């Protein structure tokens, strides 16, 4: 059997095993996709133990994405630019390669749900500066966004991302948010605020221009308080579930050697598990 998995801490709530195992069953592949929760201080030993191709690969989630990149021998441009990896592949020669599929997943979600937004030349505001924000910022940069403004409670973390990305990306404190929203074409919540039904980030989305697109990376609940406020302000919205589904596609291809079967309605399956 072909085996892959996802590791994070905690891992119990991960949706990835549900998605990948539904695809495996639909495609009739002899494989398994397993959730794993390594101890936080043993992550490197855990990853290195898979060298040699015992398993095909791992997806990596909170809080290990930065450390996952450091474990790899080589990494894609996007993963290096992001400073974070959510996909590790284990090769037969003992090497590990790293990639980041969060960024392409985010771009794909925007293309699907707000297709007329041009990323090239746009002004984007990213709320948050954790691993999710890193992938988003790097992907927007590679797609030629004009400005990537990273706003975070802890400005130092936003500054670290901006420094790695060059002039297009800038770091800001929450006090600057109203002015940044006023010229934004795209606003993305990459904080954990709103998860489980709480209030999202305190951003007055009615300050954004009319054509602005508002995206939430939080997908539980699907219609977050943040997205509800965006809709109330008349803004187009992109939900986090689409990004979750799309980031899983290149991982499935990397692990199992073929595209996910098109006849499995993975969005419906995910919705049933929210
Ligand atoms: P992820 O990997 O999903 O990005 P993370 O690295 O834990 O998760 O990042 C969580 C983000 O949500 C951070 O930007 C965090 O802000 P800090 O860097 O200041 O900690 C943000 N966040 C979490 N709780 C918050 C709160 N109550 N107010 C403002 N920001 C918050």
TrEMBL record:
Residues 119-192 form the Quinate/shikimate 5-dehydrogenase/glutamyl-tRNA reductase domain. NADP(+) binds at residues 77, 128-132, 152-157, 217, 240. It comes from the Bacteria. One of its GO terms (molecular function) is shikimate 3-dehydrogenase (NADP+) activity. Pathway: Metabolic intermediate biosynthesis; chorismate biosynthesis; chorismate from D-erythrose 4-phosphate and phosphoenolpyruvate: step 4/7. Belongs to the shikimate dehydrogenase family. This is Shikimate dehydrogenase (NADP(+)). It comes from Caulobacter hibisci. The gene is aroE.
């Amino acid at each position: 059997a072909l085996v892959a998995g996802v590791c994070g801490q905690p891992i119990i709530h991960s949706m990835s095993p549900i998605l990948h195992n539904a695809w495996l069953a639909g495609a009739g592949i002899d494989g398994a996709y397993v959730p794993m929760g390594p101890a936080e201080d043993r992550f490197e030993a855990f990853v290195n133990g898979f060298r040699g191709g015992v398993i095909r690969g791992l997806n990596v989630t909170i809080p290990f994405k930065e450390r996952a990149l450091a474990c790899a021998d080589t990494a894609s441009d996007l993963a290096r630019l992001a400073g974070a990896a959510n996909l590790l592949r284990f090769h037969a020669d003992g090497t590990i390669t790293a990639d980041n599929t969060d960024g392409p997943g985010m771009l794909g979600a925007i293309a699907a749900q707000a297709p007329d937004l041009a990323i090239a030349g746009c002004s984007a505001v990213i709320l948050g500066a954790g691993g999710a924000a890193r992938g988003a910022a790097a992907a927007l940069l590679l797609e030629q966004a004009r400005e990537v403004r990273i706003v975070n409670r802890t400005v130092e973390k936003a500054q670290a991302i901006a420094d790695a990305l060059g002039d297009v990306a800038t770091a800001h404190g929450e006090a600057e948010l109203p002015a940044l929203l006023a010229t934004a074409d795209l606003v993305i919540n990459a904080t954990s605020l709103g998860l489980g039904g709480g209030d999202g980030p305190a951003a007055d989305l009615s300050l954004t221009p009319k054509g602005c697109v508002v995206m939430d990376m939080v997908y539980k609940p699907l219609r977050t308080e943040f997205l509800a406020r965006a809709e109330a302000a008349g803004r187009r919205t992109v939900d986090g579930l689409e990004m979750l589904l799309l980031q899983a596609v290149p991982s499935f291809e990397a692990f199992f050697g073929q595209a996910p079967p098109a006849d499995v309605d993975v969005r419906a399956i995910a919705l049933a598990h929210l």
